[in-house]
Amino acid sequence: MSKYKQKKDLRSKIRWGIVGVLVLLLATSFFDAPSFFNKGIDKVNQVGIGIPTIPEKPFNLGLDLAGGAYLIFEADITDVDEAERDDALNGVVDIIEKRLSGGFGVTDPTIQTAKVGDSYRVIVELPGVTDVNGAIELIGETPILEFKEGTDEPPRELTIEEREELNAFNKEAEGQANAIIVRLQAGEEFGELAKEVSVDENSKNNNGYLGFINKRFGTESDPYIWAKNAKEGDISDTAIETPDGLSIFQRGIERDGGNLITTSHILICSAEFEGCPTQEFATNEEARARAQELFEQANAENFEQLATAFSLEPGADETGGDLGTLGRGVLIKEYEDAAYAATVGDIIGPVETDFGYHVIYKRGEEPGPEYELSRILVETKIETDFVPNDQWKYTGLTGKQLDRAEVLQDGQTGEIIVQLTFDSEGKDLFKEITERNFEKQIAIFLDGQVITDPVVRAVIPDGQTVISGGFTFETGKLLAQRLNAGALPVPIELIGQQTIGASLGAESLEKSLKAGAVGLLIVMIFMLLYYRLPGALAIIALSLYLSLTLAIFKLIGATLTLAGIAGIILSIGMAVDANVLIFERLKEELKKKKTLHTAIEEGFIRAWSAIRDGNVSTIITCLLLIMFGSSFVQSFAVTLMIGVLMSMFSAITVTKVLLRFVSPWFKEKGNHLFLGYTDKQ
Question: What is the rounded distance in angstroms from the CA atom of residue 538 to the CA atom of residue 579?
């Protein structure tokens, strides 16, 4: 019973193997030639069945099959240190690839570097390209590296027509505001009129109610000044200009908004504080000791002078540490608590916050009333409504001032970073930029595209900075190559070109396919006539091999060339060779009067070592060709290696499953459909 059960389980596994083979053959056929199957689907759908079509993805064809251009550039790297030349060339390759894919629509260019004598060359293959001159011009441009900062300025002046339209619109808005004021003065109810005419969507449905306005940020805005001088219930008799238009206000009640304090401070921090704008002090202890020294020296007369000279806050050399008059909730809590607790005229500290140690001078304190306001808003326009802001503006810092970029690993965190080093001019420019943009983003552009936009965490006076952002070593190295390619003077000159017409490529493809089809057909006929039934099964295995190989090429996006097709055709021969070895061993076992089942198992076992050794040696050869060969040889080697791997699968796995499946159909010793069978006793 147990032997019967084992046999039954084996047959079940074999049947599932056959199903797997058929499913794989069908799926890869659909993937390889979707247009062929879609034609049948379209015909079926004419009767209203609605079968979805198969997505079509073409094979990537190389230059010799699709036509296109073959360009050779020579790179002038005489000014580049020998140790940096490989990185410089790799950076140029990356720039060219990015330009072609982003600005020229070439999806799969082949770009390689080569050293010929003392010269360094960049070889570019552009399959399918017809505008060769345009590609040459695009490739030959010098990489452009730029550092930019954020801006809200319009990128250009308004034209005369735009200026006239702006003035006319705002003049009409002013007239609308005056008309509203007249209606209010005539006794119309403010809230109802706000619902009717205000363009402030947040307040109009609430009778124009805004809430309370205060002097929280230390400045008295125009609405605050009006409210301070008005009485409860008053309505402004002129429209007040606000950032979003012309506003007509109605004042409500006044209430106590808490006191406002006026302070100055001196900030001292160390590298241990996140966001410290300098690395002058390495530890918190050093920074605190310095803050304590300044606290002991400070008085009302010299505080501004000390802040200007020693405070590490960006811009303190211009403000003297003055933070102005502010209410609660604006500054960090520890600072506010200490400042509010102090008496006017006191100098306190050091007070520790997340930014560092502060020495605080409390210069004043005053009440901060709040006023309740409602408003009616009339829309106006500004220049940026006609000329939208460019997010970034030019700073003057470019790749010309970048000395070098290199990928490093942070010694403390282990994070991969890219370090930038500027020359003397770039050092001064970068210091100014980081001062202006502390805690803001700056952007690094390469060829007009943002490659990174870090936030400035410190003022950088020494001409060195790092870019971090979750890099792996490879992505960090890629970024460094891009930056160096923009910074290093690596001009390239076209020294040779060859253009292959699309018709010539199509003719080459047609001849290659015809040669492959004829060769495959002859092999199949030979296998069928000589090896009989096993030969027929080998034809099925070869069909799956070919379909699976092409599917892999399409799936990984490999580029098919004439050399690649030659590799596929050669691998077909090797796939057949594996089957021949298996069938010859099967023939020998059958001649020894072994049962068909035993002969099949023994045949595969005896053939495996020869198949393995031959294919492994071929794969090793392919790997060597890929590492050291030209692009033409590499294409041949890659397709041959993939073909060999697939041929091993088709011969050892698929053919074996098929033979195991059909063997129970015949008597124990087989019959004349198997080469080597004899009915002699």
Answer: 7
DSSP reduced 3-state for 678: coil
pLDDT at 1: 44
**Average pLDDT for 300-313:** 91
Q: Where are the alpha helices (DSSP H) in 46-155?
A: 63-66, 85-103, 132-140
Residue 653 DSSP symbol:
I
Domains of the chain: 2-55+501-665 (1.20.1640.10), 68-142+494-499 (3.30.70.3400), 160-258+372-378 (3.10.50.40), 260-366 (3.10.50.40), 387-487 (3.30.1360.200)
Q: Which residue type sits at 364?
A: G
Q: 659 and 599 in contact (C-beta within 8 Å)? A: no
- In sign, the C-alpha dihedral spanning 611, 612, 616, 619 is positive
| Average pLDDT of span 265-274 | 84
In contact, 407 and 477? CB cutoff 8 Å? yes
Q: Which amino acid is at 661?
A: F
Alpha-carbon distance of 487 to 473, in angstroms, equals: 21
3-state SS assignment for residue 397: strand
389 vs 157: CA distance, rounded Å: 12
Q: What is the pLDDT of residues 501-545, one digit of tens each?
A: 656 666 777 787 787 788 788 888 888 888 788 888 888 888 888
Whether pTM > 0.90 for this model: the answer is no
State the pairing for strand pair 492-500/119-127: unpaired
Please give the DSSP secondary-structure letter assigned to residue 205: G
Please, are residues 189 and 230 in contact by the beta-carbon 8 Å criterion? no
For the chain, the first-to-last Cα distance in angstroms comes to 31
547: Cβ contacts below 8 Å, ≥ 6 apart: 25, 28, 29, 32
- Give, in degrees to the nearest 5, the angle at Cα 581 between 578 and 587: 140
Q: Which residues contact 177 (CB under 8 A, 6 or more apart)?
A: 239, 246, 248, 378
- How many whole angstroms from its chain centre is CA 245? 40
Q: Are 550 and 28 in contact (CB under 8 A)?
A: yes
Between the alpha carbon of residue 393 and those of residues 139, 241, 458, 611, the distances in Å are: 26, 28, 20, 65
Question: Dihedral through CA 255, CA 256, CA 257, CA 262, nearest 10?
Answer: 140
Q: What is the pLDDT of residues 81-126, one digit of tens each?
A: 777 778 778 878 877 776 676 555 565 677 888 888 788 888 888 7
Q: Which amino acid is at 650?
A: S
Is residue 541 classed as helix, strand or coil in its secondary structure?
helix
Q: Considering Cα of 285, then 287, then 288, then 290, what sign does the dihedral take?
A: positive
Q: What is the residue-wise DSSP string for 24-75?
A: HHHHHHHHH-HHHHHHHHHHHHTTT--PPPPPP-PPEE-HHHH-EEEEEEEE
Higher-pLDDT residue of 65 and 429 is 429
